[in-house]
Description:
The chain is mainly alpha-helical. The protein has helices at residues 2-13, 21-41, 57-60, 68-71, 74-95, 103-116, 119-135, 140-150, 154-165, 167-177, 180-183, 185-197, 208-224, 231-249, 273-288, 290-296, 300-311, 313-334, 347-371, 389-409, 422-434, and strands spanning 42-46, 52-56. It starts with a helix and ends in a 19-residue tail after the last helix.
Amino acid sequence: MLAMWSKARELAEATPPERNRWVDFLRAVSILAVVFGHWLMAGLYVNEAGELTRGDLLSVSQWAHWLTWGFQVMPVFFLVGGYSNSVSWGAVTRKAAPEQAGVYRDWLASRVQRLITPTFPVLLLWAALALILTQVGLPREQIRMATEAALIPVWFLAVYLLVTACTPVMFRAWNRFGWASFAVFIPLAVLTDWLTFTAGVPWVNFTNFLWVFLAVHQLGFAWRAGKFDNRWLAWAWFAVGLAVLVRITAFGFYPVSMVSAPGGFSNSLPPTVALLALGMVQVGLVLALEPLGRRMLANVRLWTATVLMNGMIMTVFLWHLTAFVLVMTVAWLGLGGAGLDTVPGSAAWWASRPLWLGLYILALLPMIAIFARHERSFGPIRGGRTVPRLRAVLGVVAICAGLGATAGLTIASPEGVTGVRLWVIALVLVGAALMGFGPVYRPRNRPGLPEAG
């Protein structure tokens, strides 16, 4: 860790003055909010019959649903993604015609690789664990519960990759239509919710993964273009978004919770208009605070911590629930259920949270030390070969389908000899192969292809 801090300090001190440090800070904070939100909301405890029971804070504490307005920060990550993709793709279009053969696919492969390469280890590890645990006779329901809990984060990657793949089209739309390229997604999201909840049309609600997150991604373009430089606009955005959010949740149809919770439908899986409203609230708030944040990040220690976190951000995101499962397994099987006798939401449960959070962090540290090297935040991507455009597109589709199935179905199979849905793992690996990488891909060194964005 000291070596990583030292490297991050060198990069922090070499940061160009024109870099918007608030972007990197928001990326780090949004992922940390997700991590601690998962650790806080999830809860396993031993019931009166001595059985390990899956529970969560939201099922026993109605007031905790309001906490999700602070912990459900995926809209912030898509805002930051829009800003970063605007910088990256904008550099490509300035230095080379976007129609030039290979520009888009090299750019897309570079973005996909940075997200997927760190995903291979956690995916393959849990596939191997599911296989081994099935062969030794562990109940398949327990295997499913563990793999499902550990691999929840990958649903976000599937959506983010799809949105990223749309960047050239959406960037062109922003340059031509401006705010209208954002506004069009509001009626699309509203129509989708109407078709879902009023007309009862099945499956159409899944299109809101695109409409909601593409809308927030467009706001990243607006931010990069300086449209929020007037902080009164940002505060107005926050106020209007908050008014709409309160109206449609506390006094309306949508649940208050912004994540899946008992007693109602989910506002996040798939997204609803309520999550879009929350995104507007969060966008307005973080952009209103930008001047203060950029002054704050002039502090070299805080900026170094931000650089360090961004250098391991995918590892922390992908492995934090594996750390949770590890701690729970040791407590249940190794220590006879020690510490698992408190029901989520009780006074004793809250009092024990600092200790449990500390244990989760300790369990995560070795995973960071081992797997953070799969990230490429501290170094450029070297030259190599490229692939045809159609293969690149099919590769992204296959990867997203595999990651979506991993989160929605889990890789643990209730039947079969292996106990693993091998086709789910195969989709991700085949998708990576179609794009020409895996652990070894390098996009070729083409003028205009940025090494970081």
